[in-house]
Design brief:
This protein is of the alpha/beta class and 363 residues long. The chain has a single domain (3-362), classed as Vaccinia Virus protein VP39 (Rossmann fold). Helix content is 45%, strand content 18%. The protein has eleven helices and seven strands. It has helices at residues 3-6, 23-47, 63-82, 102-107, 109-120, 180-204, 226-244, 250-254, 265-275, 306-326, 331-346, and strands spanning 51-57, 89-96, 127-133, 146-152, 205-217, 278-289, 352-362. The protein has a seven-stranded mixed β-sheet with strand order 3-2-1-4-5-7-6, with helices on both faces. Helix 3 (63-82) packs parallel to helix 5 (109-120) and helix 10 (306-326) runs antiparallel to helix 11. It is globular, with a radius of gyration of 21 Å. The protein starts with a helix and ends with a strand. The mean pLDDT is 83. It comes from Gossypium darwinii (Darwin's cotton). InterPro entries: MeTrfase_7, MeTrfase_capping, SAM-dependent_MTases_sf. It holds the Pfam family Methyltransf_7. GO terms for molecular function: metal ion binding; methyltransferase activity. This is Salicylate carboxymethyltransferase.
């Protein structure tokens, strides 16, 4: 699997699109706002720059893309008004892999800019947008050209499927039945990737530049624990059932592995300190329910079905990976089964995504 080619969220604005099934990710961004606001405020108030270059890495498409950017600009605008400072100019870089649906982003850009001017008034400085397709496990920007980097729910994705997973039979990710060498391979790939990410960003950020990174992660030391791997184990159950029925070839399933690693706070801290380019300002852990609509009111009947909500969220994320490996024919059936399995488990136990958030300053 060439991750750079096939890893992207479902594009467009249809029923299974990421744009319409990313409420979990929006909730996580909202939960992280105090940390993000603190970081961008400290950045701005340290030097009051006349221009601010912001990069959102793994921006995907849909409302969350502009939600992050607008919140950052609003915080800076509020800070500069308090001291009667002229608004800086903003350069915003939206980055994701080449398969990302950049077209949908830029079709809605003029509406976003209009709303932002309406909210902040005529004093707001110009805001320039650039799409940057490419992997953030490599250089993307000029040296010393960025002030602030944001990334949410992207850095758990690896640059490639780790080598040596042949013994991970019946699983599609790390699981309770995965051999130790599989867990080791995943961890070493994360170490390599995250260290490279930090090194590249240290080149691109100005001195004193800041980053806020949110990983899908875990609290404990076990990389195969249910709190981070269960969501994929249930998908593997649906696929294994289809193998037993002869719908999917067993060999096809055994050669499929998710290119992801969900780190613990200790693992994130260790890599940051080992790489050495950044100091940690804040490191926190939060949790959000699998079903982001759980406590919402005035929902239609469809959205009251937790299994339906979670299966659609996961389909928006995982469908391109499954499609590239198994083909289109199985997709609807996989997620029909997955919805039933997820609904059953959610009715019997507490389920949630753990988020690891780190705020960093370039040393």
């Amino acid at each position: 699997m060439e991750v750079v080619q096939v890893l992207h969220m479902n594009g467009g604005v249809g029923e299974t699109s990421y744009a319409n099934n990313s409420f979990v990710q929006q909730k996580v961004i909202t939960m992280t706002k105090p940390i993000t606001e603190d970081a961008i405020t400290k950045l701005y108030c340290s030097t009051y720059p006349e221009e601010i270059a912001i990069a959102d890495l793994g921006c995907s498409s849909g409302p969350n893309t502009f939600f992050v950017v607008s919140e950052l600009i609003k915080v800076v605008d509020s800070a500069r008004r308090k001291i009667s400072q002229k608004s800086p100019e903003y350069q915003v870089f939206l980055n994701d892999l080449p398969g990302n649906d950049f077209n949908t982003i830029f079709r809605s850009l003029s509406i976003f800019q209009y709303k932002l001017r309406e909210q902040l008034g005529p004093g707001i400085g110009p805001c320039f947008f650039t799409g940057v397709p490419g992997s953030f496990y490599g250089r993307l920007f000029r040296k010393n050209s960025l002030h602030f980097v944001h990334s949410s729910y992207s850095l758990q994705w690896l640059s490639q499927v780790p080598q040596g997973l042949e013994s991970n039979k019946g699983n599609i990710y790390m699981a309770s039945t995965s051999p130790p060498n599989v867990l080791k391979a995943y961890y070493e790939q994360f170490q390599q990737d995250f260290s490279l990410f930090l090194n590249c960003r240290s080149e691109e950020l100005v001195d004193g530049g800041r980053m806020v990174l949110t990983f899908l992660g875990r609290r404990n030391d076990d990389p195969s624990s249910k709190e981070c791997c269960y969501i994929w184990e249930l998908l593997a159950m649906a696929l294994n059932d289809m193998v037993l029925e002869g719908v999917i070839e067993e060999e096809k399933l055994n050669s499929f592995n998710i290119p992801q690693y969900t780190p613990s706070p200790a693992e994130v801290k260790y890599e940051v300190e080992k790489e050495g380019s950044f100091s940690i300002d804040q490191l926190e852990v939060t949790e959000v329910n699998w079903n982001a609509y759980q406590n919402e009111t005035d929902l239609s009947d469809a959205f009251k079905d937790g299994g339906y909500n979670v299966a659609k969220c996961m389909r928006a994320v995982a469908e391109p990976l499954l499609f590239s490996h198994f083909g289109e024919a199985i997709i609807d059936e996989v997620f029909r089964r997955y919805r039933e399995i997820v609904a059953d488990r959610m009715s019997k136990e507490k389920t949630g995504f753990v988020n690891v958030i780190v705020s960093l300053k370039k040393a």
